[in-house]
């Protein structure tokens, strides 16, 4: 059994309540940090742990903390990004719902290290019932003296609030999130200045993902070095993976980084293999925005090495033959899935979620959605595939925030690895008019037919 | 109807809105806009009319346009009336892979409306939405604050019958008493 640092107690009855959580060792990191460590010592442990941002970008968390402007006279803020909306990702929801106090504990310990006396958890609005769970837990923490004035009799004070979003994927981008928290439209800001210098209310601010903040708890408890022993290379610790799609056991799994992808998919401990006894066709390994990979490339790198669940191994081969760990949204497609249809849902998603600030993204996502839609429904034109490649290229790298890239990558990678399937749609429009075309008759490469 | 209903929060909602505003530093009360819009939507029939938005602007002491531009940006705010139960079905990739399209079709047939429409009796509005973070329990739909997961046609029938009979309005807001801060 793999070690669990976050979900260790997920099945303990009542773990969502303060008392049970506390009995199981909860809030120890707050006691340890506030009573025996300086804020900088806490940050040192986070640095040593090698913890990388778990929201998707994978930036080293300790380094991000170290950028915080500590000379400023202004108040500092810690804002938790719980705007989980990358399709395929539901781990933060699971964690907040099951063990809300783990996030709150992490918020207190992290806020102490950063010198924040007011912190916010920005939760996507659709998770309203999760907000309720968090607010209850926050009340309990106040009552037990872990929040409020002079926590545990020290001179450290912290107020913690939950903020609901309004249903906008873009608010997962940290500067858009801050805009939203200020009561504005979620339009990403131009950087610099970075939030560490001028974030919430133009004050020094750190924005961290739910899982990142939760991971601070075991890091402070056991020490950063101990945490760094788990994993491989620069991928240290454990990671929550949201597994969905055509597998036997969808759900949230805590893995030790370094687990072979193949084991993750086929072992009973995790996904339990492909459903209905079918074969696997493709995987989107890190949430909707990362490149899709066909079976052979997700199990093994182009060099023939076993692919591992780490930041490095998944991105081995760059965008030619690799992908990214991203948010850990692991979507599996079986042989009956239509790559074009699946891609269409993502293209529609990014079109819907583009904030409209940058023309390449605002216009390009709409174009891509329309062209993919017509290919999927049997109205594709010759030249549409190249048109898509061209549009994707013109969006990538030409926008203020990463949404443009996130919209372009799935399109570019689907065509790179499954071009034949797009061609099939254009060549045999009658065959794809039934939306369940590949369920009725799985796609077979014409090349293999010729050689057969 | 010639009597215009006065737009004003209930006592409970007013107290909550005052508490919410205190969560932010002096002069940053605009931060309360999203929570207050959720609250207003729950209080005033499940959508935000112009008078409702103006009322929120007056509470926060900001210009009405500052409210309109925000309300129109976020997909959870309805700028037109909706049925009693707003049924939001996720249709993004992972849900689609697990049969979301069939579920949507089933609901359309059962209610006799297409997505985006409201039943003539005003009971249901059907909307399709993007990933709600429930992909591991797909297909799914949200009605008010409730998630309904691992849907089958039978489950949908049962749910719609129950919701239709209850006559209650679905709302994202959970309760107005939950929090003291
Ligand atoms: S795709 Fe439907 S909840 Fe994520």
What key attributes describe this structure?
heterodimer; A: 452 residues; alpha/beta; Rossmann fold; Ubiquitin-like (UB roll); 3 domains; B: 181 residues; alpha+beta; Arc Repressor Mutant, subunit A; Glutaredoxin; 2 domains; 4 strands
Q: How does this model look, in words?
A:
The complex is a heterodimer of chains A (452) and B (181). With 452 residues, chain A is an alpha/beta fold. Chain A has helices at residues 18-23, 28-36, 39-49, 61-66, 91-98, 100-114, 128-143, 174-181, 195-198, 210-222, 224-228, 261-266, 295-299, 311-315, 318-321, 339-353, 359-376, 384-395, 403-427, 437-440, 446-451; strands at residues 76-82, 116-123, 159-164, 205-209, 231-232, 235-236, 238-245, 251-256, 280-284, 292-294, 329-334. Chain A has three domains: 18-229, NADH-ubiquinone oxidoreductase 51kDa subunit (Rossmann fold), CATH 3.40.50; 243-334, Ubiquitin-like (UB roll); 339-451, Up-down Bundle (de novo design (two linked rop proteins)), CATH 1.20.1440. Chain A has 21 helices and eleven strands. Chain A has a five-stranded mixed β-sheet. In chain A, a hairpin with a 7-residue loop joins strand 9 and strand 10. Chain A starts with 17 loop residues before the first helix and ends with a helix. The relative contact order of chain A is 0.12. Chain B is built from seven helices and four strands; from the N terminus they run H-H-H-H-E-H-H-E-E-E-H. Chain B is an alpha+beta fold. In chain B, strands 2-1-3-4 form a four-stranded mixed β-sheet, with helices on one face. The model of chain B has no long low-confidence stretch (mean pLDDT 93). Chains A and B meet through helix 7, strand 3, strand 7, strand 11 and helix 16 of A and helix 2, helix 4 and helix 5 of B. The complex binds FE2/S2 (inorganic) cluster (FES). FE2/S2 (inorganic) cluster (FES) binds next to helix 5 of chain B.
């Amino acid at each position: 059994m793999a070690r669990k640092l976050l979900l260790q107690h997920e099945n303990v009855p009542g773990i969502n309540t303060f008392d049970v959580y506390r009995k199981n060792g909860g809030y120890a990191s707050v006691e340890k940090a506030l009573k025996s460590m300086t804020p900088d010592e806490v940050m040192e442990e986070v640095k040593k742990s090698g913890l990388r941002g778990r929201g998707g970008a994978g930036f080293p968390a300790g380094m991000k903390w170290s950028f915080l402007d500590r000379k400023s006279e202004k108040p500092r803020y810690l804002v938790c990004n719980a705007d989980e909306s990358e399709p395929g990702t539901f781990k933060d929801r699971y964690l907040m719902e099951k063990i809300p106090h783990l996030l709150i504990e992490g918020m207190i310990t992290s806020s102490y290290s950063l010198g924040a006396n007011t912190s916010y958890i920005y939760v996507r609005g659709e998770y309203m019932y999760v907000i309720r769970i968090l607010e209850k837990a926050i009340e309990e923490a106040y009552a037990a003296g872990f929040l409020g004035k002079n926590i545990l009799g020290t001179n450290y004070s912290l107020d913690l609030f939950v903020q609901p979003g309004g249903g906008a994927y873009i608010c997962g981008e940290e500067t858009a999130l801050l805009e939203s928290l200020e009561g504005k439209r979620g339009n990403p800001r131009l950087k610099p200045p970075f939030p560490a210098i001028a974030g919430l209310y133009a004050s020094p601010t750190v924005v961290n993902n739910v899982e990142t903040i939760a991971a601070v708890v075991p890091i402070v408890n056991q020490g950063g070095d101990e945490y760094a022993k788990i994993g491989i290379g620069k991928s240290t610790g454990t990671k929550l993976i949201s597994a969905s799609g055509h597998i036997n056991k969808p759900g949230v799994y805590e893995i030790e980084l370094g687990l072979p992808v193949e084991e993750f998919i086929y072992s009973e401990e995790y996904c339990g293999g492909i459903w209905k006894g079918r074969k696997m066709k493709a995987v989107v390994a890190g949430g909707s925005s990362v490149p899709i990979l066909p079976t052979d490339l997700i199990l093994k790198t182009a060099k023939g090495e076993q692919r591992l669940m780490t930041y490095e191994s998944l991105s081995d081969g760059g965008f030619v033959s690799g992908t990214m760990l991203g948010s850990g949204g692991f979507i599996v497609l079986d042989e009956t899935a239509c790559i074009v249809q699946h891609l269409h849902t993502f293209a529609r998603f990014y079109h819907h979620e583009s904030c409209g600030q940058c023309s390449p993204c605002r216009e390009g996502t709409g174009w891509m959605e329309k062209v993919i839609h017509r290919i999927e429904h049997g109205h594709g034109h010759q030249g549409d595939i190249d048109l898509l490649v061209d549009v994707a290229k013109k969006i990538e790298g030409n926008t203020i925030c990463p949404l443009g890239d996130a919209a372009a990558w799935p399109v570019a990678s689907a065509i790179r690895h499954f071009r034949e399937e797009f061609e099939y749609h254009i060549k045999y429009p009658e065959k794809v008019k039934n939306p369940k075309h590949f369920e009725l008759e799985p796609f077979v490469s014409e090349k293999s037919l010729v050689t057969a | 109807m010639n009597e215009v209903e006065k737009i004003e929060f209930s006592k409970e909602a007013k107290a909550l809105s005052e508490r919410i505003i205190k969560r932010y530093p002096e002069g940053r009360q605009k931060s309360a806009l999203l929570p207050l819009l959720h609250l207003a939507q729950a209080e005033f029939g499940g959508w935000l009319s112009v008078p409702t938005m103006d009322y929120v602007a007056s509470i926060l002491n900001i210009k009405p346009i500052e409210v309109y531009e925000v309300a129109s940006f976020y997909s959870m705010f309805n700028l037109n009336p909706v049925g009693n139960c707003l049924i939001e079905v996720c249709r993004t990739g992972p849900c689609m892979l697990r049969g979301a399209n069939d579920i949507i079709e089933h609901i359309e047939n059962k209610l006799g409306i297409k997505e985006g429409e409201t039943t003539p009796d005003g009971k249901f509005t059907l909307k399709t939405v993007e990933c709600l973070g429930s992909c591991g329990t797909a297909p799914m739909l949200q009605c008010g604050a409730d998630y309904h997961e691992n849907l089958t046609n039978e489950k949908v029938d049962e749910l719609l019958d129950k919701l239709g009979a209850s006559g209650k309005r679905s709302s994202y807001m959970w309760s107005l008493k939950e929090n003291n801060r």
